[in-house]
Predict the 3D structure of the following.
Amino acid sequence: MKRLPAALPRSFYRRPVAETARDLLGRDLWRMLPSGVICGGRIVECEAYGGPDDPGSHAFSRTPRSEIMYGPPGMAYVYFTYGMHYCANAVSHAEGTAGAVLIRALEPLEDLDGMASRRGKAAIDTPGSIRSRALCSGPAKITQALAIDVGLNGIPLTGTELRISPGTGPVSDPEVKITTRIGVTSGADRRARYIVADSDFLSR
DNA sequence: GTGACGATAATCT
DNA sequence: GATTATCGTCACA
């Protein structure tokens, strides 16, 4: 791939976070590396995180870290966690609120070899053979495969460094399942995880 | 195939 | 000082 597909407009993210999460399934996330190489994949799993009303969300408390979730929709929220992992979100909310969609899994589409080398030996079966299922089947795997870190926190998802394009979505209703979120300790019962049910590329 | 556990540091209280 | 929107590895089945 030598050209990025057109980006979804900022208005795509200016609505309640649950709507955006549902609509992000089947869309494509792209990353252009400093070298000019483009990598990316189709979003098959994501989770909605709300504002002060959502105990499982970083924005439940308004702190320096969560401030970006209160800012303009359509920006990337990238945070560091567990001492070693990054997670990537799309800031989304209706006017005057806070929220973001955590991108949890991709079906790899472009630059699988580059992803595999950035992911390390966990993504290799036998030397030279890529386990594509292992490339992007989790939020921290995605950021590693696409070389996303806090340096990209706050940039728009409509630019060239990071972009979400329409892809093949939106996905039809029968293909979508909604479950409880993963790894969340408070507000764990909230059903806010959106998946393409028959995808082979979901997180654990 | 499943389940337990340690790694490791920013962020928050 | 405690917690954490995770992952890879190892034991076991």
Observations:
- Chain A has a mean pLDDT of 96.
- The radius of gyration of chain A is 16 Å.
- The longest strand of chain A covers residues 38-49.
- Chain A has three helices and eight strands.
